Structures are given as structure tokens and as C-alpha cells.
Amino acid sequence: MNSSPLTYLLALAIGWVPCLRADAGAKIHALLDQDKPFTMLSESDFRSLKISLPDEGKQVSSLALAAPGGAFDPRDVAKLDPKSLGYKADWIVERFTRYNLPWDIGGLRLTSMDPNAKKYPWVVILNGGAANIYEFYIDLKNRPGWGQFLAQKLNVMIVSIPGNFKYGGWAKPIADRDPAFLLDRDLTADEVLVYNSVFTFEVIHQGLKQLVMENTTGDIVIVGHSTGGELPGLAQGDPELKARLKGRYLGWGSGGPVRIKAIIAAKRAADPTYIPAPTLTGGGETGGSTRNWKQAGDFWLNDMARRTPQVYSRVYSRWLNPLYEPGMSVLDIATKWLEVEGRRRANFKQPLQDLEHGDHFGMKTEIEVGIEKALAKTGNPWGINVEEVQKDLHSTSYVPLKGYRTMVWCVGKLDGHWNPIYPEKGTDVRIAEEYKLHNPKAKIRVIGWDLNVTHYAHVELPEQLAGAFVQVVDWMMKQDI
Amino acid sequence: MKPFLFSAALLMGLLTLKAFAADEVEKKIWSLLDDPKAPYVSLDTPSFMSLGWELPDGGKRVTDLALAAPGGAFDPRDLHTIPASVLGYKADWIVERYRHYNMDWDIAGLRLTSNDPEAKKYPWLVIMNGGAANVYEFYVDLKNRAGWGQYLAQKLNVLIVTIPGNFKYGGWDEPVKSEERQPAYLLDRNLSMEESELRNCLLTNTNVMKGLKQLLMKNTMGDLLLIGHSTSGEMAMLANNDPELRARTKGRYLGWGSGGPARMDQVREAREGVAASEDAGRRPSYGSTSAPATPRERTPLHKLSRRDAAGYSRGYSRFLNPLYEPGDSTYQIAEKWIKAEGRRRAQFKQQIQSIEHGGDSSLKGWIEVSIETLLDKAGNPWGVNLEEVSADLFSTHYTRMDGYTQMVWTVAHYDRNHWVPEDPMKSVEVFFANEYRKKNPEAKVRLMVWDPLMTHYAHVELPKQLAAATYSVVRWFE
Questions:
Q1: Nearest CB to B364 within list A272, A397, A437
Q2: Residue B361 scores a pLDDT above 90
Q3: pLDDT, position B360
Q4: Structural contact between residues A121 and A473, judged by C-beta atoms closer than 8 angstroms
Q5: Which of A77, A169, A321, B46 has a C-alpha 20 to 30 A away from that of B12?
Q6: Strands annotated E in B75-147
Q7: Nearest CA-CA partner of A467 in A107, A158, A111, A45
Q8: How far is Cα A318 from Cα A323, in angstroms, rounded to an integer?
């Protein structure tokens, strides 16, 4: 029996997978050990990274498939047996007050069943402008998502920024829907106008801090995806969060805070030899510099960018998207994506988020006036003091650049944050280079996933991405030894 | 004996008449300021010109000091030797050394403690120079005659502040245009060019504010009224962000050619759609060098903008200037002015001051890079932490506008950057006052125009009258 060919093949297969896992993990460590502008993990290594789920994610998928538009109630996840999930799930809503307004921020806390998870920091994942928890927890076909895989090994908190999550999702089309800044009631039109007009990063920062401080203990790393990439920077300027970050930064499609982007832009502008490197992708967002912010008139701060297939086809929709089928154009993929995520995903973004995330400090006055007009229109029954709001504006231009010990940016090859033609000229590589100047003793790394994953690799190859992140976090922790 | 008695009676009568007239003008000023509805009020020229009081020695002792010093750059410490009874006040020259960005800085103040026992009833009047000036022009005029501060100090306690760098013992030997003429950030030693250039980039408004606060907290007591002239108008506004200073200003604001904070710089454009070009006059620009638009052509941050006759002839040199003589063109007045004040007046301004006072906050990245480059080049022996500088940049865009109870902007009729006599409602001072009215609906917010053809520099044009007028405004506050 022991010598039968079948047994031999079975043994080989069983042994092969862990072997590949170990190899890829070791390779990530080895790549991160190298003090280079960037390194890349090969496609075969990336794809070899595996993490299994106890029930293969079936219970969560069933929940999602049973809900209209997949907008299952995250409170229901908490009812599932942790043993069958591999983690204990809790849906937490924190209410906080800023500018005399109540705000809700929601977090899906996944406390890993793996006892080793306690050795690692909480991985706090924060969505970017138009997303929410769902895409970090399940994929576009309601199969297990990034967070589920991560939580097998690490404690994870997936955060939805205020407004971007709604119980049951949005019944209204993307073009007509409003953010759910409060989860227990709908807002009036006047409230929506005002909430959108004062939705600063400091609002998110306050909510995030409350969520983290009240519901996690010990070390943290904050993974701010996309526009959410501002939050780790703001947290670094917060004494209590800084004490828990311990100089660690982990980026996923995060870029850098607007402060560093402004510095880089100034250096490039002053350099007569600088020529922008050709890129394969370009930017995924509507071009900030050419955007006519005020075209909507007096209440332009309420004029949200609403996601469309055209925008999502530019760089976000590629061939590893779960919805891709042979023969589809990128527009087809994007169309399908927005269709299937039409209910549970916010698919909108406030101008203020883009303004504070872009180098638009010069528009502070315009923003103040926009807020004033919104308040004047509504009569300001909430007693919002513009003076309190104005002092928060462009906080992203003031985030500290120092105080880091270990920083790792992880980037997909087709993400606009990477330059697959001239990798050394990629956005995140350049940002990391700037951080090195300010933190000469820190270990600062950029690792690219060398396969055709985009800014949304967490819905494209979530299992492998989770496997890679587990290794990156492990490497980060080893740097403290 | 009889002629003497008659003369004495006549003198007494004249003095009484003058006092009576001054009382009447003061009542007129109060009456104007009492009007809650007027967007602005004006004090007529005859009334303004009738104002003023004499100095015990006619200001002679100070004038003698100034005339004896090369370029009029007398040592303010020498004022201490003149009896207070001769001056009408006790003069003290105070230098406060403070630390910011891991560097030492000196800020200086000429404290004039009035002999008038009534002065205690009123706040300390703190006068801060604008970009290129210093203590002298608020204390003596361009001919070294008694200046605004001397008159004010007969009735009020006054502190005339020179922002760091702008005062130097004995003045500057180097011509205004010389690159060697650099700010005196430390008063007890000269700085290397490398250090001067770095400091030129670090003179943020927050830096100045720190020194000002130390000067005020250590050397004055009780209520304060902060007058920031020109660019230093930012200081009075920034003080509203500081809890300790706010407790002493008690919601009062007094402007003199001060305008509004940079935070308000583009508000009108944003609110009313005023084109930038149409709005360009809102921010004092005479004599300053604005950075060109193209980054590669922009004047390096460490370079100073330097005053010249062309710049000062545009709006600052007019016919009440003490140096004006019949037949002089405005350019000739300006030429004489720059020459007469070529030693004791700084005549330069740091670009960071102009940028923070203007609306171009998009330059924050460029500023950081400029400072970083200088630090790298020098090896940063000072241990300046760029993070601390970055945190301070554009504080002027975050001044609180609420919490005021009484605000008065005073402005001269011919201060073209602040007042548009042909269309007053388009004046920036009207705009600023209205903005503060909106933010402080319960406050008494007033704008007073002095009607004579005085400029932004009326404090060297008609210091005596301006002092009396300012005094009446201070009394109105009470």
C-alpha cells in the first residue's frame, strides 16, 4: 500500500502545497529583507499562497446569496459559530459626535481562532472612497473575501467609513442614493447636504479612533485602501493611536498622504530634468486637477462623485476580476461589477474626500464658503460652528512623516500605484523613497505582486493576497526582534 | 503783571477751548462708532486735524537721540536714561529670547508705561510692525520728530513690537539691495549667510506669535489690544487662537491698516465669484515681491523681498509724508523715504511672511522642499525638525473668527490696499468687517475711516492726530 503509485501521488500532493506555501512565504521575507527601492513577488509564488477556511466560507456565502443584492446584515455573521468560520465575528457600530452632529462608523471585527494571532497586531482595514466592508469580506460573487482568509491567522477589523454602509444596502440607483451617516434612520435632504459638506478626514479619524480604542487592544496596523490611505498618516499624528502603531505602516493600494504628494509634486516641478514616466494604466479616479469642482453650483460639496462603468473600466476592471468572462471588454467587466455591487456598495464619494486627499489646499476658502452656504440654506438647526469645521480642513496636509520604524507598501502590478513599465518610477515607490529621507533608520519596503492584479486585488485573488499579507505582517513583527 | 495774567488767562482759555474741542471730536468718534447699522463711518478731516496733545518736552530728547545716531538708528536702551517725567512715560527696551524649531530667536519691544494714572483703566496697546518695518516708525517720524507711540503713551500704556529680524542695534550698514543685508534674528551676534537664509524660511507667523506671546506674558499685565499693522495684522487674529492671549484680549480687536487674516483672502472670490484679477488689490502688495507662477522660476524661499522707491511710490508715498516737499513726485517722496530710513528700517521682508499672509496655500509642498533642501545643504547643525515647521505652516489660514465682542478697524482714506474712496463698499476692510459681523452677530463690529488724505503709513504722516483718534477709539471700547 505504502508503495502504491496512488499513495505516492497523494503524499506528493499533500506535501507539495505546504512546500509551496513555505517557499512563497520565505520568499516574501527574503524580498522584504532586501533594502531596495522595490521588490516583486513572482506570479507563481503569489498564486501558491493558500489559506483554507473551516467551512470554505459557505455559511457567509449563503447569507450573502440570500440577501437582495448580497447586502446581508453583518450582525447575522456574529450568530455563526466561530469554529466554523475560523474567527469570531462581531459587527460593531460606534456613534460619535463631531461638529455637533452624530455620526456612525461600523466595523466588522474578526477575532481569529488561531491562538498565534495574539502575537500579531490587529489588522485594521479601512475602505476607500466608494466602498465599504463587503468587498473586504466577500468577493463579487459572494465567495470568501480577503478578510475571511486573513482572519484565519490574524485579528482583523474591517471598517466602513461613515456613510458608506447601510443595512440592506441601497434600493435607490447609484445616481440617486444618499450616504447612511446614521445607521438607525434615514437623513433628510437638508441633513444629507450638510453631512456631505462637512465630511472631513477628521470625522473619519475620530470615528476610527473610537472604534479601535474601544474594541481592540494591543498593537495595530492600519491598512487604508485607496483614499483611506490618509488615515494611517493621521493616526500617526494621534498620540494614542501612534502608541499602538509603534512606527509600523502597512499599505495596500494606499499611496501616501497628500502632504507627501505635495512635496513630491514640488520637487518634480522644480526639477528641469523631470519627465513623467509613461504608465500602462494612468489614474483610476476622475482627474482631480481638471475637475470642475463647483460646476454643481452653491451646494457643490453635496455633488458626490458617483461610480460609473466608464470610470471603473479605466484601470480597476481587468481579467482577474471574478466577474470577467472570456470575451469581455473592460467596460463589460465594469458594467457587470457595478451591477452586482449596485445595492450593497456605496458607489459614491464626497467631493471633500477627494479634495482633502488631493493637493487642493488652495481650495480651503471655497470649501468654507460651500459649508456656509449649505448651513444657510438649511438654517443650521444643528448649531454647527463653521469655525470647528475649518480648523479640521486639510488635516491631511499636516500628517507627520517621521516616527516610522517599519513601512511596507504592497501593490498590485496593474494598480495605478505601480508602474509596470518603469517600476522604479511607480507612485508608491516614489512615496516610499520620500519616507526614507525622513526615516533614515527605518526599514521601508515596497513589494509588488507580479501578476495582473489591480487596485482591487482583494476581490480578485483574496486568498492569495491574504496569504501574502500574513507573511508581510509576520516580517514586520520580526523586525522588532 | 497784568499782561502776564492776561496772557496766562488767554493760554488757559485756549487750552480749555482745545480740550473742549477735543472732547467734542471724541464724542463725535464715539457717536460714529455707536452706529450699529453703518457698514463704515468716517471722521471728517477738520475734526481729525483738530486732534492731538503735546508732549512734555515736545519730543525733543528723543529727537536729539535719533539725530545724533547715524541714520537715526539710536539705541532704544538709551531711552531708559531719560526721566519719565520728561517723556510722559517710562521707556524700557525689552528683548525676549525664545526657542522655536530648536533655534533661538530674539523679539524686541519698546515698552512705554504711561505716567497718566488713567492709563491703567485701559488695555495695553500693543503695536506690531508689518513686514519691512520695525519699532522706529511707530516711535519717531521720518524726520525723527515725535511719533505715534510717543503721543499714544501720554494716555495709554504702549508696547511697540519689532518682529524677529527686523531690528538691529545701530541699523544696517549694507545697502537695502545688498544680499549681505540680512535680518538680525539674534541681537547679540551676527549670523552666517547659511543660517540667515535658513531662518528667512523659518519666520512663520506661528514663530513670530510664540515670541510675541512671551513678550506680552512676561512684560505686561491685564487687558490687551493688539494692533498688527499691515502683514502683522495676522498676529492679532492668531492671538484669538491662543487661550491665554484670548483671555486678555477679551474679544476685542483693533486694526490699523490691518485688513483680515489670510484665511479670508479668497472668501469674496469664492462667495461672489469676483475674478482674481479684480480682487487683486485686496491684499497689500506694495513693495512686496510675489512669487512668479512657474515653480522653476520662483524666487527661492530664502531670498528676501527688498523695498525700493518704485514699490513705495505706488501707494505708500503721498503728500502728507513728512519728507514731501512741494513739487515732489510720489517717486521722489519714496526715494527720500527709502534713503532716510536706509539704515534703521529693515526694508526687507521674508517671502514666508508674504506667502502665509496671502492666499496661496498651495505652496506648502514647495516651502517644505525649500527648507529641506537648505537643511540638507547645511547638514542641519541646528537640529531643525522639518516636521515642526510643517505643522506651523499656514496657521494664518486657520485663525478663529468667532469669540469677538468688539472689533474696530481703523483705516486711512488713502490706504489704497485697504480702502477704496471712490467706491467704499468695495473696500476690503468693509468686506472683512462684514465677514466678522456674520460670525459674531452679537458683537459690535465697526469700521472707522480717517478722512484726511493719509496712506497706509499715516502713523508717520500725522502721528499726533492719529494717536488722539486711536485713543478715542480705545476709550470707546471701554
A1: A397
A2: no
A3: 83
A4: yes
A5: B46
A6: 89-100, 103-114, 124-128
A7: A45
A8: 9
Confidence of residue B358 (pLDDT cuts 50, 70, 90): confident
Please tell me the total number of residues recorded for chain B in this structure: 478
Residues A366-376: tens digit of each pLDDT: 999 999 999 99
Question: Are B350 and B165 within 8 A, CB to CB?
Answer: yes
Chain B residue closest in CA terms to A402: B387
CA nearest neighbour of A470 among A427, A421, A410, A398: A410
| pLDDT score at B17 | 61
Beta-bridge partners for B226: B126
Q: Is A173 left (phi over 0), alpha (psi -120 to 50) or beta?
A: beta
Chain B CA closest to residue A395: B391
Output the nine-digit C-alpha cell for A34. Answer: 532586501
Mean pLDDT of A285-301: 77
Q: Are B404 and B441 in contact (CB under 8 A)?
A: no
Q: From the CA of B189, how many Å to the nearest CA of chain A? A: 32
Instruction: Please list every residue in chain B whose beta carbon sits closer than 8 Å to the beta carbon of residue A385.
Output: 402
Cβ–Cβ gap B266/A263 under 8 Å? no
- CA B196 to chain CA centroid, Å, is 23
Average pLDDT over residues B302-309: 96
R_g of chain A computed on alpha carbons? 22
Contact between residue B103 and residue B202 where contact means Cβ atoms under 8 Å apart? yes
B93 touching chain A per CB within 8 A: no
Cell numbers at A261, concatenated:
504628494
For residue B232, give the nearest of B252, B267, B203 by alpha carbon: B203
CB A354 within 8 A of CB A227: yes
Q: What whole-number distance in Å separates Cα of residue A235 and Cα of residue A239? A: 8
- Min Cα–Cα distance to chain B from A83, Å: 47
Partner-chain contact A368 B270, CB within 8 Å: yes
Q: What is the mean pLDDT of residues A35-50?
A: 97
Instruction: Give the integer Cα–Cα distance in Å for B285 and B206.
Output: 21
Interface of A with B (CB under 8 A): 259, 261-267, 269-270, 272, 359-362, 364-366, 368-370, 372, 385-387, 390-391, 394, 397-398, 400-402, 437-438
State the Cα–Cα distance between residues A8 and B196, nearest whole angstrom.
78
Write down the residue that cell numbers 467609513 correspond to.
Answer: A161
Kind and range of the H or E run holding A65: helix A58-66
CB pairs under 8 A between A and B: 83
Joined together, the cell numbers standing for residue B24 give 467734542
Q: How far apart are CA A238 and CA A205, in angstroms?
A: 9
Give the residue on B whose Cα is nearest the Cα of A391: B398
| DSSP summary character for residue A21 | H
Query: In Å, how far is A73's CA from the nearest CA of chain B?
Result: 42
**Residue numbers in A near B391 (CB within 8 A):** 398
Residue of B nearest to A359 (CA): B362
Query: Distance from B158 to chain A by nearest Cα, in Å?
Result: 31
What SS3 class is residue B163? coil
* Local confidence band at A480 (pLDDT 50, 70, 90 cut-offs): confident
Residues of chain A in contact with residue B266, where contact means CB-CB under 8 angstroms, are 365-366
β-pair partners for A446: A409
DSSP-assigned states of every residue in B241-289? T-HHHHHHHTTEEEEES----GGGTTHHHHHH---TTTTGGGS--TT--
What is the share, in percent, of chain A residues with pLDDT greater than 70? 93
Q: Which residues of A touch B360 (CB under 8 A)?
A: 362
Out of B361, B400, B439, name the one closest to residue A361 (CB).
B361
Put simply, the answer to whether A272 touches B266 (Cβ < 8 Å) is: no
B113-119 average pLDDT score: 98
Rg of chain B in Å (alpha carbons): 22
DSSP summary character for residue B347:
-
Distance CA B21, CA B15 (A): 10
